[in-house]
């Protein structure tokens, strides 16, 4: 006989306690414990149905055909070239951001190529899903819609249909009858996910898990869920803004530096082949505080506008508001600009943002941030066709960065005529093109060139 026991589980991190607690000692969340009734029973070891014997890695053959193309170039780019057979992919994002729309569009294209696709909807009825599919124009005989929340029935349908790919939308709505806890709880999410991933590996079938997110933007449920899957994708963007960015934060089969850019329209999501032109489309003319930087996202150079506003503070402590870049990085560069650039800027309120809703992480944007701050502080506009990039050290020196030539080529394509870059990179560039390249070694030298 199975033994019944009651435990209290934190819905944020999965910590278990024999009694209720107001604050989780593991993740410090308040009022996150929920009572769950569990049956303890002995279970045998799980074995893949098609298990093979150990073999040397040199004898294994990997072909390009082992990746399934979705037909959406931006999605394939983020996945590392396509969907690896047997992989488990978790995609999260804010409600209404376009997760289900992206999945339905991608699966419609895969179904049109002749592969069977099973789309399991735990939140919508089949007719509701068809209405959305008609709006997106993704109707196909190979696209099967299944509205079900029970794991056992889903797995039974997968074994009978034998689809080429399965979508679970969303994993928080699926539950197994072996557990008495409610759908969306830590136990249910962990168990249902493990069963789906186990079957996907055994049948060499990719599975997409759509996940809800919490208030702080992380995927809801236990953190172990992100460790169980092969790839974790985040769909970012403001619902009031038409641009969406798909970013990989974990990928066992590709780079985590790649991003995909989409535009939300009435007929669904459309790929943005040239993100640089999109981000610079509404750039103001001859405005102080506006600087264009070249950032490398994976293998793709992107030109983005950085805007800043520097005002004298009316309070004792200056205010700092930063959107799109790291707050500490901006604070560091402000100190360098005052000490090495000769500008009395630390007693001013500073507001800085990256336009287009994109977030920049790499150090090559340092010089662009300083140029933007200095431009607004001096109230002098940077030349409209000038792009800036380079890393800045604490001594005010401008350090070389990687992949300078692709950044210059991207600027030339968009009609820029001048580029300010580290002098170290200038000496190593072979094909300088038609741009005027100006190498600088310090922040002071950069300011003399611009202003």
List the SSEs and their pairings.
Blueprint: E1 3-10, E2 16-17, E3 33-40, E4 67-68, H1 73-79, E5 83-84, E6 88-93, H2 99-112, E7 117-121, H3 126-136, E8 143-147, H4 151-161, E9 165-169, H5 186-203, E10 207-211, H6 224-228, E11 231-236, E12 243-251, E13 259-265, E14 268-271, H7 275-279, E15 290-297, E16 300-312, E17 320-323, H8 327-341, E18 348-354, H9 366-378, E19 386-388, E20 391-392, E21 398-399, H10 404-413, E22 418-422, H11 423-426, E23 436-440, H12 443-450
Parallel strand pairs: 6-10, 6-11, 7-8, 7-9, 9-10, 15-19, 17-18, 19-22, 22-23
Antiparallel strand pairs: 1-2, 1-3, 4-5, 11-12, 12-13, 13-14, 15-16, 16-18, 20-21
What does this structure look like?
There is one protein chain. With 451 residues, the chain is of the alpha/beta class. The protein folds into three domains: 38 residues; 209 residues, Rossmann fold, CATH 3.40.50; 173 residues, Ribosomal Protein S5, domain 2 (2-Layer Sandwich). Helices cover 27% and strands 27% of the residues. It has twelve helices and 23 strands. The strands form five sheets. It has a nine-stranded mixed beta sheet with strand order 8-7-9-10-6-11-12-13-14, sandwiched between helices. The longest helix has 18 residues. About 1% of the residues have low confidence.
CATH architecture title of the largest domain: 3-Layer(aba) Sandwich
- Low-confidence region ranges: 44-48
Distance between the ends:
81 Å
Strand order of the largest sheet: 8-7-9-10-6-11-12-13-14
Radius of gyration: 26 Å
Helices, by number, come to 12
The CATH superfamily of the largest domain is known as P-loop containing nucleotide triphosphate hydrolases
The proportion of residues in beta strands is 25-35%
In which range does the helix fraction lie?
Answer: 25-40%
